[in-house]
Design a protein that fits this description.
This protein is α/β, with parallel strands linked by helices and about 140 residues long. It contains six helices and five strands. This is Universal stress protein.
């Protein structure tokens, strides 16, 4: 039913994505869909990042994140499935929504943190923004 399935991964809390990945793997295995896994880190143009890291150190950190994503995927994705793995820099919600449209993703499965109303008002919710802006089906798993 869905040809391309995306699971955004927060490598700070990879276990939080485990349930989303289980559902995505079921869809991929049953339907022969493509699996896409991405993670988003703050970009070097972010003032906070630039004030603490040199550009060289930032690039090294992004490479390390890519290695950790690959390691995570190797651990949780069966060997017969070859996921597309990508690391992006920037605002998570914006990057995810852009990825959805550029790769013609049909289904996004992602966890949704339970936050207080104050946190959600001040910080926003990546999952809520993705669900609102995506032009495909979005399955949010609440913790």
């Amino acid at each position: 039913m869905f040809k391309k399935v995306l699971v955004p991964i927060d490598l700070n809390e990879p276990a939080f994505a485990d349930q989303a990945l289980k559902l995505a793997l079921r869809e991929v295995q049953e339907e022969g869909s493509e699996l896409h896994m991405i993670t988003v880190v703050p970009g070097f143009t972010n003032a906070f990042v630039a004030s603490y890291f040199s550009e060289k150190d930032h690039k090294k950190a992004v490479k390390e994140v890519a290695r950790k994503l690959q390691e995570y995927a190797h651990k949780v994705v069966p060997s017969e499935i070859q996921p597309t793995l990508r690391v992006y820099e920037g605002s998570p919600a914006e990057i995810i929504v852009h990825y959805i449209s550029s790769k013609e993703i049909n289904l996004v499965i992602m966890p949704a943190h339970h936050r207080s109303k104050i946190d959600e008002f001040l910080l926003g919710s990546v999952s809520a923004r993705v669900a609102e802006r995506a032009k495909c089906s979005v399955l949010l798993l609440k913790d």
